[in-house]
Amino acid sequence: MTFVVMSSHVLEFTLEPSVELFPTIKFSLVEFAEIRSIMNGVRLAAFRFLRGSPCLLTRSVTTVVPPEIQKYHPHIGNREIVGYGRNGNPQYLDDPHYPYPSIRFCPQTDEIEVLQAKEKGDWHQLSIDEMKNLYRHSFRMTFAEVQAPHPRYKLAVAWALFVMSGAMLYFCFIKSVVLNLPSCSYAKKEYKDALLYRRLYSRDGPIDGLVSSFDFENMRWK
Description:
This protein is mostly helical.
């Protein structure tokens, strides 16, 4: 099948290979769009018919699961949404400024459901361990644990010292082995003595300088 655009309003197509048996058909683009929409409608009707048949009977998920669970629970798992939280998004964060997160810390389990049903009654019937389990189910840390100083800075200091030590060792290796720089002559004792001798006999500072502190007759310092 070959399509040829004759003008901006007329579309021509030819059925091959036999042009004599299937002559050229001309129709407008509007008619072509109408035919295409009719074919799409027939296909949609067939799909709806098959969907409504007993062999393909399905039930929409939206009729079973609430929209809130469809939106958030694939990301937060089986955790209960209990409030607004920090910004309205269902996320857990231990923050003293927002002490009540929007979701619980742990997911729902059968044991927790039993404890939650038990806590609706008299709290004197709950043991200390059960109260702690209920608290840890909703919160990860207490206020004292949240506000306590975190020892993370020790790890940062250790890494900084480790990197600095490695850099110093690398510098010493490059300086002594790779570059093999000659020793500085200014640091030698012979050079320092020669410089001192030159300053003394050049009469550097005869009043309040270096020469004023040296006795040339006895060749010693005053």
